[in-house]
Amino acid sequence: MKSYRKILELNIPNRRQFINITPHVKEALAKSGIKEGLCLVNAMHITASVFINDDESGLHADFEKWLEGLAPEKPYSQYAHNGYEDNADAHLKRSIMGREVVVAVTDGRLDFGPWEQIFYGEFDGKRNKKIMIKIIGE
C-alpha cells in the first residue's frame, strides 16, 4: 500500500468564506499515483471545516445565513469562550459543518456523485490556514 500527504496553505482574506478545493485535491491525487484507495481531506484548524456539497453560490449564501442564525458572530459577549479571542461562533460553525471528508478513489479518480465538490469552510480567517490531503491505496 502507498501513502501520499500534501499540505495546502491558504490565506483567507475574509473572516468567513467557502472555497472549492477540489482542483487541489485532484492534483494531489494525480501526483500520488494511487489508483484505488481513499482520500482524506481535513481542516487543520478548529475554526474551519472541510465538507462536500454543490458549488452553487445560492447554496453557499444559504449556508452562511443558516450558520449565522445558529451561531451568530456578534455580540461577542454572548459566548463564554470569548475573552482574549472573539471566535466562539467559528468553533460552533465548524462543529456543525464537520472537520473532514473521505472520498473513495476509483481508477485514479475521486469517486463523486453528481455535483459533488470538496470545500474548505473558513469561519475565522484573515490569516494563513492549512488543509491536509492524505491519500492511501494502491
What does this protein look like?
By secondary structure, the chain is of the alpha+beta class. Helices cover 25% and strands 38% of the residues. The N and C termini lie close together (5 Å).
| Beta strand count | 8
Beta-sheet strand percentage?
35-45%
Sequence of secondary-structure elements: EEHEEHHEEEE
Strand order of the largest sheet: 1-8-3-5-6
State the share of residues found in helices, binned by percent.
Answer: 25-40%
Sheet with the most strands, sense and barrel status: 5 strands, antiparallel
Q: Structural class from helices and strands?
A: alpha+beta
Amino-to-carboxy terminus distance: 5 Å
The value of Rg in angstroms is 16 Å
Are there runs of 5+ residues with pLDDT below 50, and where?
A: none
* Global geometry: elongated
Number of helices: 3
Mean pLDDT: 97
Provide a brief overview of the structure.
The protein is α+β, with helices and mostly antiparallel strands. The chain is 25% helix and 38% strand.
Q: Which key phrases capture this entry?
A:
single chain, 138 residues, alpha+beta, 5-stranded antiparallel β-sheet, 3-stranded antiparallel β-sheet, 8 strands, 25% helix, elongated
Topology overview:
Layout (H helix, E strand, L loop, with lengths): L1 E10 L5 E4 L1 H11 L4 E7 L4 E6 L3 H14 L17 H10 L2 E7 L2 E2 L6 E6 L5 E10 L1
Antiparallel strand pairs: 1-8, 2-7, 3-5, 3-8, 4-7, 5-6
